[in-house]
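Question: Hello, beginner here. Any chance you could explain the protein record under this note? Any guidance would be welcome.
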Amino acid sequence: MADRITPSEEEFAMVHPAVTRLSALLGVPSSEGDTVDWEELARTTGLRLPADYRDFVTLYGGGELDEYLGISTPPVAGSPCGHLVDLLDFDPREAPVAPAGATPGDLEKAWLLPFASSANGDVVFWHCEAGDPDSWDVVVFRRQSGYGEESWLRFESGFAEFLLATLSGTLPNPFSYACFADQPHSYRHWRQWR
């Protein structure tokens, strides 16, 4: 496979600003990202995804961040990361409805869509309660939390801002692996796994 051609300034000018800042930490993508027909995905599933995530998938594709955090994508031919739609357990076309007998804590965990998972079993979700995907918060389930610590953490930020804040250390590390925020960082596309 040929080396990735460095994205032009025009290409980066059209990318979500948070993804541009994130690329300063991750470096220029070393392979092509993934091609997803976002309109077709929305038409067939009702799922519209945040703009920063769409730009990240287009630039970087599905893969692993620091060989620790796997990023899922919608279906992409040949990709082992293309299972995002399979993880959808609600109908995005319907308004959120509390299940019978739901507690406020259950409601907090309703309408979650996982988009990343760690080598330690942590899972990162969007909280899809709002109609506008660009306003979805990020929720992390930390598999290995310390005694008295919360396993479920909610962040009022989107996909790229969450990753940027975590990787730069401005957000306390929400993952089970204590050194995840240590720099430098790298992203490896799934085609590079072979």
In short: The longest strand covers residues 112-118. Residues 1-6 have pLDDT under 50 and may be disordered.
